[in-house]
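FAQ: What does a multi-protein file look like?

Like this. Sequence, then tokens, then the next protein.
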Amino acid sequence: MSDKRKDSGMSDKKNALYVKDSGMSDKKKALYVKDLGWKFTKVLDGDTFSFELPKNPALTPKLRKLSVRVLGIDTPEKGFRGKCEQEKILGQKATDFAKDLFDFVDAIELLDLKWDKYGGRVNATVIITIKDKKYNYTELLIQNKCAFSYDGGTKQSWCEPKIDLEKCCNFEDLPL
């Protein structure tokens, strides 16, 4: 865990998150999640995180959980899903990088929301704001070697060639 982490964690994110859908009119494009009652809950891995929707008699607790997968990237798998030791290590590094980064995020914007082809989660372009500066989350992960660019086709291997693990996903290298 990084020494840069904030003590406050993610508690304020529900008030600072926007949801945008390119199919909406300009007037309705930006919706504050606090108005929707959405709450950022956690980073699941480098390219997926979750939200909890507001209580509603029609939704069971399980149905209130919504996962968002970041468009445009593929991060390595961690744990038993990794195909080799290198991928498992990189998967954990990408997850830790995302957790450290989200501790500094003041606002999250979700753009171009679409249901994932596997169902149960939403795909979105993610823009984060840190200290009044906006960053494309996809670009941050690619620049820091935590992700490959991915358009839905064949994925690059995280197992070959060998990757210098010391040069990947170094949160301390970010200018925050």
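And here is the next protein:
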Amino acid sequence: MTITLYYYELWPESMAARVLYEEHPQLAQTPFVLKRVDMAAKEHRKPPFLALNPQGEPPVLVDDVGLSGHEYRVWDVIGVAAYLHQLDATPLFIPPICNMPVGFQWAAWSHTQLVEPVQALVAEWKLSGPNGADAGQVARLVKRLERSVGILEGALPKSGGFANWDFNHAPPDNGVFGIADVMIGSALTYTHRIATTTFDLGQFPTTAAYLAALEARPSFQSVFKGVTLGTPIPPKDMP
């Protein structure tokens, strides 16, 4: 069995898929290959990649033998998460039943309300450069991002915790680390990797502390090490 994961370092949800792999320690013995899709060169719009994912976006995971003995492929970070969980049912990703719906809620929310404006900001600078970016578009995206992070700021447990915490339970129920945190963290981390953005996470202290805790995890440190706008990470194979 060999697992191949297609990613692009400036596409948050494909990096979230890499974090998810790192958070499944039992997969360390499984041959694993990372393949970078150069979205700046529009490789994601070319037939070889579209044959893997007609949406034309990473992540895509391909297992050469699959669970039933033939090639299996899945795209989108939620699909990747579900497949990795089938291969390694790490207890870390099995929250108490009361936390699970809230976790799915925030995972879905992050895709439309957080990942989209962050991705648009990254694309604005990647395509135009800091001096050529559309100032009006950037201002609109920053305002949208501030509105979204404001919602997250009001929902996170103030004493530290994770996105799937159940506010109906008495402390110390601060939730458990899960896919929602991977998706939210993999988007928010770009807000301080675009040096010229006007978005200031410091105005959201609970969210800033939450992100700092996520970025301290070995998985985030490994995946995002050296990732800055305009500094692509070369593809590498992991035995």
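Q: Is there any per-entry metadata?
A: Some entries carry free-text notes. For the entry above: The chain has a mean pLDDT of 82.
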